[in-house]
Amino acid sequence: MKRFAKSAKSVCLLASLTLFSANQAFAFTLTRRIRVPDWMDIYLVEFLVAVLFSYLGLMVTKPRGVPVKQLYRVHLPPLANFFRVLFITMYMMMMGMFFAGMFLRRYAEAVS
Predict the structure, then answer these.
(1) Each residue's pLDDT tens digit, 25-63
(2) What is the pLDDT of residues 69-99, one digit of tens each?
(3) Which of 31, 47, 86, 101 is 20 to 30 A from 93 in CA distance terms?
(4) SS in 3 state form for the chain?
(5) Do 108 and 37 touch, CB atoms closer than 8 A?
(6) Residues in contact with 38: Cβ distance below 8 Å, sequence separation at least 6, in sequence order
(7) What angle do CA 8, 9, 11 make, to 5 degrees?
(8) Which of 93, 91, 88, 108 is nearest to 38 (CA)?
(9) 97 vs 24, which has greater pLDDT?
């Protein structure tokens, strides 16, 4: 129980520092067409970290000799399946937020 409380405290501290550090915006702009509002930068970075974590977890736990493109065809251990589902979910959420941010930025430019 002590170990859980210590790790939960660390997770809460890290999450609060991440969320409250949004005053330094990176102004995520790739080209003239791909722009996201500044306040979304920290959320996109969090999703990117979650995607990278789940991808690395999937690479470590997947069966040997199975390429990534063929993972849906083989029976995976529960931990590898968890990382696969987590990767797909986080990637879809990150891309959805990315496209929603592009829409919001263009809408704000069109209205103003």
Answers:
(1) 445 555 666 667 777 777 888 888 899 999 998 888 888
(2) 887 788 888 888 888 889 999 999 988 888 8
(3) 31
(4) CHHHHHHHHHHHHHHHHHHHCCCCCCCCECCCCCECCHHHHHHHHHHHHHHHHHHHHHHHHCCCCCCHHHHHHCCCCHHHHHHHHHHHHHHHHHHHHHHHHHHHHHHHHHHC
(5) yes
(6) 25, 26, 27, 28
(7) 65
(8) 108
(9) 97
